[in-house]
Amino acid sequence: MSRGKFIGAILIVIVMISLLLVSCGGNNSTSSYDTNRTAGSHSEKEMKEREEKEPIEIVQEISIAAIGDMLIHNSVYNDAYNGDGYDFTPMLKRVKPFLSEATISIANQETMIGGVELGLSSYPTFNSPTEVGDALKWAGVNVVSLANNHTLDRGEEAIQRAIKHWETIDMMYTGSYKNPEDREDMRLFETEEGISVAFLSYTYGTNGIPVPIGKDYLVNLIDQELMAEDIKRAKDKADVVVLSLHFGNEYERMPNQAQKDLVQFVADEGVDVVLGHHPHVLQPIEWVSGENGNRTLVIYSLGNFLSGQDEFYRQIGGLFKFHVKKSIINGETEVKVHSPEFLPTYVKYTNWRDFEVIPMYQLTDEELPNAKEHYDEIKKHMSIWLQDLKFIEE
Questions:
Q1: Is the pLDDT of residue 196 over 70?
Q2: At a CB cut-off of 8 Å and minimum separation 6, what does 270 contact?
Q3: How are beta strands 143-145 and 104-109 bridged, if at all?
Q4: How many CB atoms lie within 10 A of CB 207?
Q5: Separation in Å, CA 38 to CA 33, 43, 224, 305
Q6: Over the stretch 94-139, which tens digit does the pLDDT of each residue have?
Q7: How far apart (Å, rounded) are the C-alpha atoms in residues 283 and 298?
Q8: What is the rounded CA–CA span in Å between residue 120 and residue 152?
Q9: Cα–Cα 20 to 30 A to 102, which of 18, 24, 46, 377?
Q10: Mean pLDDT confidence for 205-234
């Protein structure tokens, strides 16, 4: 082959290879590159939106029940005497299921269980057998409020004896303490559900009996500065703050302005629930708005739960129940008090014997004439400011 023909053949091969490369790689040229294309925008691949993860939510719930005055008159403990000692459990048998069903139950123990050797109850001073505490424990009560106008009736010795017994039966007490260190120990109830509840208790006074000098720990008196400090400490430690107030006028069925003002004060301080006692008759339930937009659940008076008083409205008390929900969503905690309920109760006895606390919805006309009419009137009274209040009837 001549030199010229050889060179021509090479040129033909080069041209053919160049044409082949152009036909295979033309789409890679910068002139045809689609700048709007993304890694996921291939036309042959279906696009799917990324699903958002469900928030991690943990919800726990408890219930709290509260009863009013355990005011143990002579007639009551005489009826409880069985020859060897005192047994108050038959008096509470019909309400035990409601007390024991709640996660926490609190009672206002108005008479000090200082022991029979100190002398028993005769107005205006009271003292009760320690078996009252045993009966409350048996019925399902976990906490007792001890700050009331009868706390100092039998002096410091009765208080110390009472506290010793409460400790013996492992019952939390609040409002009266054995020493300064005991008072500084916040009453914090830690539930198995992981919800903590702080209990505080205060009274308007002690029937003129002076608190021993240097022993303010024996009884918490209503003092707004002191209460504000205690509430702040409680809120720092607990999910819920429940505050008992011994206040108001005896035998008045509606709260007075002083009660409303004090409730507004503690609501502004952030208390979640207020339990009132002292009037010995029922006063209504309502929600009170605090200055920070919070809501405080209030019952102004729980009435007498067990006592020897003999006028009709003084024989009526009740069990106040509410629920606490704690939600943790993506690490953020929210605690809410909700769904208040009420169980009206009646103290039945005959000739100062056979004392028994009975749910009003269970009463027959033989036990209380016109029982249903009385029950309906009490329901109307308690729900006057809370129209959707639920009444416990099972």
A1: yes
A2: 231, 235, 241, 290, 292, 294
A3: parallel
A4: 13
A5: 12, 11, 67, 75
A6: 999 999 999 999 999 999 997 655 455 555 678 899 999 999 999 9
A7: 10
A8: 14
A9: 377
A10: 97
Strand ranges across the sheet with 282-289? 188-190, 196-203, 240-246, 273-277, 295-302, 282-289
Residue 33 has pLDDT above 80, yes or no: no
Q: Token match 């123990």: residue?
A: 109
pTM: 0.85
Helices 131-139 and 155-168 cross at an angle (nearest 10°) of 40
- Do 359 and 95 meet the contact criterion of CB atoms below 8 Å apart? yes
10 Å Cβ neighbour count for 228?
A: 15
Q: What is the pLDDT of residue 125?
A: 76
Q: What angle do CA 156, 89, 101 make, to 5 degrees?
A: 100
CB atoms within 10 A of CB 212: 13
What region, left, alpha or beta, does residue 18 occupy, with left being phi > 0 and alpha being psi -120 to 50 degrees? alpha
Question: Do β-strands 332-350 and 304-307 pair in parallel, antiparallel, or remain unpaired?
Answer: unpaired
Contact 285, 388 (CB under 8 A): no
In 3-state terms, what secondary structure has residue 107?
Answer: strand
Q: Which of 127, 213, 196, 138 is nearest to 169 (CA)?
A: 138
Helix (H, G, I), strand (E, B) or coil at 276: strand
